Amino acid sequence: MAKEKKQEFVTHITPRSEDFSQWYTDVIKMTELCDYAPVRGCMVVRPYGYAIWERIQAELDRRFKETGHENIAMPMLIPESLLLKEAEHVEGFAPEVAWVTHGGTEELTERLAVRPTSETLFCTMYSKWVQTWRDLPMKYNQWCSVMRWEKATRPFLRTSEFWWQEGHTIHATPEEAQEETLTMLEVYREVAENVLALPVYVGQKSDKEKFAGARATYSIEAMMQDGKALQAGTTHNFGTNFAEAYDIQFQSKEGKLEYVHETSWGVSTRLIGAIIMTHGDERGLRLPPVIAPIQAVILPIAAHKPGVMEASNDLFEQLKAAGLRVKLDDRDTVSAGFKFNDWELKGVPVRVEVGPRDLENGVVTVFRRDLCEKITLPLEGLADALKNLLDDIQKELFRQAKAFRDEKTFVAHNMEELGEIVKTGFAKTMWCGDRACEDAIKEQFNASSRNMPFDQEGERFQDTCVCCGKKADKVMYFAKAY
Amino acid sequence: MAKEKKQEFVTHITPRSEDFSQWYTDVIKMTELCDYAPVRGCMVVRPYGYAIWERIQAELDRRFKETGHENIAMPMLIPESLLLKEAEHVEGFAPEVAWVTHGGTEELTERLAVRPTSETLFCTMYSKWVQTWRDLPMKYNQWCSVMRWEKATRPFLRTSEFWWQEGHTIHATPEEAQEETLTMLEVYREVAENVLALPVYVGQKSDKEKFAGARATYSIEAMMQDGKALQAGTTHNFGTNFAEAYDIQFQSKEGKLEYVHETSWGVSTRLIGAIIMTHGDERGLRLPPVIAPIQAVILPIAAHKPGVMEASNDLFEQLKAAGLRVKLDDRDTVSAGFKFNDWELKGVPVRVEVGPRDLENGVVTVFRRDLCEKITLPLEGLADALKNLLDDIQKELFRQAKAFRDEKTFVAHNMEELGEIVKTGFAKTMWCGDRACEDAIKEQFNASSRNMPFDQEGERFQDTCVCCGKKADKVMYFAKAY
C-alpha cells in the first residue's frame, strides 16, 4: 500500500490555534450543520446536522429499548401550578422559562410553561398511573425539544431550544432506582466512547452542580480541544423527593402505601457540538464512521475518460448493497479540487477516487480523513476492505481523542498548579467537599467541579484539599466548562 | 385445520351500535393508548399508542427518504411578524395560536407563536438558503408536535397539541411542484392502504376546504365505522403564494430572478384514531400486523404442566429470531381468560396458545384477531406459517374495511338522497363548484365536501348540481366529517 501525505488545506476556516471559538463557528456554518433561527437564541438543525442526530438517536434508542424502556410523548406545555410543587426544581428552572399567556384571543387563567424539562409532567402522570407494586417499575423515555430562555447562546452547545431525550423511571426500592441511574450512565458512556468516539470521565457531580431536585447526579465529561470540559450526559437519582411533592405512592407487596423512587436522565443535540470540538481539524469536521451520514464518497477522476463513470456507478451500487452509506459525487459544475475540500470539510471518513490509471491496475485511491493519508486498495473486495477501514478510523479517532485528553489531564496538588492546569485541560484534585472551595476555584480560575470518579479509593493521591488545605478524601476533576 | 367460532366478548366496552363515540373513548382508555394531560385539550401518548406511532413514522420516513427528502428541525416558536406575512395563512391560523409573551422574568417585545404549522419558518429559511437554480429543489421534512388552541377536543382526532410530520419543498418550476404534490399524495395513499389497511378516496379539495394559503389542496379520505369521513392526509401546492410573501427568489439558468414554487404535506397522530375507528370491534382494537407493536402473543396454558413453559420459551425465542414482534405472557397473577380478553382488547393480531395436549400432538392453537377464529398449526415451521397468517390478516382487515366503505358509498342525485346517504356514509355527487352549495349542504345536513376524484371524466353520472340543479361538471364526495 503506497502512502503519501496530503498537504493542501482549506484556508478559509479560522485556525484553531488562532481562535478556537471562531473555528467552531466557521466549521458549523460552512458544513451547514445548523443555522440561526429567526427567534432569538434558537437554531435550525439543517439536513447534514439532523442526519447526524438521527444516527445518534437510533443508537441510543436501541439501547434504551434493550434495557427495558418504552417511548411516550408528553405535552410541551406545563401549568405553572404543577411546576411549583417541588421547591428546588422551581428555583432551578423558573428564571429560564418561556411563558404562554394567551390561547387564541383569550387570556389564560393560568400561565403555561413551555417545558424546560418534564419531571413535573411525568410525576403528575405517574401519580395517576401507579397503583400497586405490580405496576412497577415504569421506565419511560421521550424524544422532544425543550426550551430554556438563555442569555448567551452558541449553536449546539447552548441554545434556548434544544433537542434531547429525557428518560423518567419509577421504582419500588432505592436499590432499583440507584441501579437504573448507574445503568443509564453506563449506556451514555458506552455510546459516547464507542459510537461518538468521545473518551469521557464518568462520575458523580457535587451538590452544587447536581440537577435541581436530585439527591444525586452523575455525568460523563468530555474534553474539547481547547481543554475545556463539556458535560455530555447526566443521570439523576431523585430518591423520593419528587414522589413526595407529587404524591406518587404505591401499595407494596405487604399492603403498605409507599413512595416510589425516581430517576431521570438525558442527552441532547449538544453531543453534536462535542463531536465537532473533539474531532475537528483545520480542514473541518472529522466524523466518526458509526454516525457519519455519508461514510464514503466516490469521486470519479477525469470522468470523461472511458470507463470511469461506469466503474464509479458500479462501485456505488456495490458499496450501497454492502450496507455502506455511500455517495457518488458526479457534479460536473465544480473541479475535483473543490470536491476534495468539500468532503474533507464535511468530515466524510473515506474518499474513494476512481481514475483511469488506477482502473487499469484494478485499484482505487482511498483517502482516509482521520489521518489525511492516501492509500491504494484493490477494487476486488473493496466493500469489505472499506468496512475494515471504517472500523479502524472509528478506533483511531477515539485513540487520538483519548491521547489528547490524557495528555491534558494533570494532578493538581495546590491552587497554583490547579490554575495552570485548567488553562489547557483537566485538573485532578483532592477536595474537602465544601462548596466554599468550589466557589473559590470558580472565582479565581473560572473552573468548576466536573465529577468524582467511582474508584475514589484507587485514585486518591493526597489527604488535603487543593483549595483550603483541610482534610480531604474526595477525588474531583475541575475544569473550565462549556 | 380445525376452525371454531369464539363467542366470549369483553362486556365492559360500550357497544358501537349503542354509542360509537363512547365506544371509541372506552377502547382508548382501556387499551392505554393515551391519556388526558394536565393541560386543557392536550394528551399524553402512552407506550402502546406511541409504539404504533413509531411504526407509522418508520414506514413513512423510509418512503420520504426514498423519494429524496431530508429531515431537519425548525424552532417551535415563530415571531408574530413572520406569521403575518401571508394574509390567508394568518386568517386561517391566528385564532388558534398559543402565544408566548414572557421569557424568564422579562416581557418580550414581540409575541411568539407556538407553531401551529411551520410554513412561515420554512419560507424564511428558504429565502436565506436558496440562491440559484443549482440549489433547487430543496425537499425537507420535520417530525414534531404543533399546537392549535382547539375548543372541542377528542383524543387523537382533535387535540390542542398533536404529533405529525410536515414536509416543505421548493422547486424551480410549477410542473415540478405539482409533481411533488401528487407524489406525496400517492405516498400517503399507499401507506394508508398497505400499512394501515385504510381504504381511502384520493382527490382534490374544494376552494372552501383547502389549506390557508394554498392554491390547491389534495387529500386522502377514509370512512369510519359510523359512516363519517376522516381526512387522513393532505398535500398542498402553494404555487408562488408564499414565495412572493417571503421573497424566496432564485437565479434561473437564464440568469433571471424567479420565485420558487412550493409545496407542503402532512399526516399526524390522527391516523391512530383512524385505525381504531376503522378496524375496532366489540372486543376492542384490531391492529394491522404491519404496525402492531406486538404481532403475536404466546400464552402458556396450564403452565404448571411439564413441558409447557419450556415449549413456550423455546417458541418465543424462535419467533423472535425469525423477526416477529412477539411477547410471552407468563403472568401467574391473572387467569387465562383474563389474558385472552386483554390481548384481544389490545388488538394483537395473533394469539398462540401453548397447552399440554396440543404439545403432545406437535401443534399449537392459534387465534386470529381479525376473524376471531381459532385454527390449529403444527409447531414445526410455525414462524413461516405465522408470517403468512399475518400477511393474510393485513389483507383481510383491508378487505373488510373496503367492503364496508364501498357498501356505504352511494350516488346522490338530489338533496333528499344526499341527506339520507350522509346519515350512514359517503355521498358521491355532481356539484356545480359554487361555495353557496357547499354551505347549503353543510347547513342542512352537517356534511362537507371531501374531495374530487382525479378521474372526473370516468366518474361523471349526471350534468346538474345535487344542490342548486344548475349545470355541474364536478364529481365531489360529501360526508359528515371528523
Task: Describe how the helices and strands are arranged.
The structure is a homodimer of 482-residue chains.
Chain A: E1 4-5, H1 20-31, E2 34-36, E3 43-45, H2 47-66, E4 70-71, E5 77-79, H3 80-83, H4 87-93, E6 98-103, E7 106-114, H5 119-129, E8 138-147, E9 161-171, H6 174-195, E10 200-204, E11 216-223, E12 229-239, H7 241-246, E13 249-251, E14 257-259, E15 261-268, H8 270-279, E16 296-300, H9 308-321, E17 326-328, H10 336-345, E18 350-354, H11 356-360, E19 363-368, E20 373-378, H12 382-407, E21 409-411, H13 415-421, E22 426-431, H14 435-445, E23 448-449, E24 452-453, H15 456-459, E25 474-479
Parallel strand pairs in A: 4-8, 16-17, 16-18, 21-22
Antiparallel strand pairs in A: 1-20, 2-3, 5-7, 6-7, 8-9, 9-15, 10-11, 10-24, 11-12, 12-15, 13-14, 18-19, 19-20, 22-25, 23-25
Compact summary:
The structure is a homodimer of 482-residue chains. Chain A is α+β, with helices and mostly antiparallel strands and 482 residues long.
Description:
- Two copies of one chain form a homodimer.
- With 482 residues, the first copy, chain A, is an alpha+beta fold.
- Chain A has 15 helices and 25 strands.
- Chain A has an eight-stranded mixed β-sheet with strand order 4-8-9-15-12-11-10-24, with helices on both faces. Chain A has a six-stranded mixed β-sheet with strand order 1-20-19-18-16-17, sandwiched between helices.
- In chain A, a hairpin with a 5-residue loop joins strand 13 (249-251) and strand 14 (257-259).
- The radius of gyration of chain A is 25 Å and the shape is globular.
- The interface between A and B is large, with 55 and 55 residues.
- Strand 6 of chain A pairs antiparallel with strand 6 (98-103) of chain B, so a sheet runs across the interface.
